[in-house]
Amino acid sequence: MKKKLFYLAALICCVATSLAFTSCGDDEPDVTATARYTIIFGDDFFRAVDGVVIYYKDNGKVKFESITSGTTSWVKDVTGKLPNEFGFQWRFQPKDESSLTEETYNLFTTATIALATSTGAAVTQSKPIINGASVKKKDVVKTIQKESGNSFGYRVSKKGDATRNDNLNYDM
């Protein structure tokens, strides 16, 4: 009799334990965000500068992309599950001073991030990268070097709250 009660008690413990650890599943869908990165280049930008953009792509990894001469803008759309980081960094190299033939250069260049989450939150922000519509030839190198390596970004929480962060890590 004691043996039967022991097995019954063990069976009840097993059933209770299995019911206690049964998961109901995750009823909340994954929250995602989509970001559009945009850089608009001044008319003379590529006559004075070579450049690359380093950005966070869909999977949160950092990607490197050269910007080609003759381009008036650079646009990338990325989507990722939250929490995540979205942003980009520009690295510019001024051309050799001997190849600068104009007296002034329109280097005015702007960056924009438009971010929207699947929860309906959205933020769009622009900032000048190079605030120089009429940069003198002698100041081109100094102007480019001052702005190269700056970045623009957001950290987005699992709930979809976006916080501006221009110091994201762009190491590859």
Main beta sheet: 5 strands, antiparallel
**What distance lies between the first and last C-alpha atoms, to the nearest angstrom?**
69 Å
Uncertain stretches? none
Strand content: 35-45%
Computed CA radius of gyration, to the nearest angstrom: 26 Å
Order of SSEs: HEHEEEEEEEEHEE
For the largest sheet, list the strands in their spatial order.
Answer: 3-2-5-10-11
Per DSSP, the total helix count is 3
Q: Kindly name the structural category.
A: alpha+beta
> How confident is the prediction overall: mean pLDDT?
86
Helix percent band: 10-25%
* β-strand number: 11
Shape: elongated
How many discrete structural domains?
1
Features:
172 residues, five-stranded antiparallel sheet, 43% strand, elongated, 11 strands, four-stranded antiparallel sheet, alpha+beta, 3 helices
